[in-house]
Design brief:
mainly beta, three-stranded antiparallel beta sheet, 1 helix, 7% helix, 38% strand, elongated
């Protein structure tokens, strides 16, 4: 049940009125998300020296340097998807039954296509 709710709440599934399914534009940026199981923001220790850039590009100007062993505080982050996975629903499924709800949060039909954007941890992925 927890897995179903996690998947349903993470789903960003959208089908335009014309019937053709919209695909996520790439690169897809998920601000505030963590990229691995048990990921948290907060105090981290640099394992090697590195440069912090003004933008997400090695070509952007360097804002400051971080020495190996130096503590830094991560306050937020972004997971960037450059290639999504494709999943086709094989049989109808209803997901995301919440307490006191009369219907599931999501109903998928056979043939629907989901685009996997990234793993979120706790057996949950972010879908489009």
């Amino acid at each position: 049940m927890k897995l179903q709710i996690s998947v349903a709440l993470a789903l960003l599934f959208s089908v335009p009125a014309a019937g053709a399914q919209e695909k996520p534009s790439l690169p897809f940026s998920d601000w505030g998300s963590c990229p691995f199981e048990c990921c948290t923001y907060g105090d981290w220790r640099a394992t090697k020296a590195l440069d912090a850039h003004q933008d997400r590009s090695d070509k952007s100007p360097v804002s400051f340097h971080i020495a190996a062993g130096q503590s830094v505080r991560a306050v937020t982050g972004v997971v960037i998807t450059t290639k999504y996975g494709v999943t086709q629903v094989m049989k109808p499924i209803k997901l995301g039954y919440l307490r006191d709800a009369k219907a599931p949060k999501l109903s998928l039909a056979a043939g629907d296509v989901l685009y996997t954007l990234h793993y979120q941890g706790e057996a949950s992925d972010l879908f489009w």
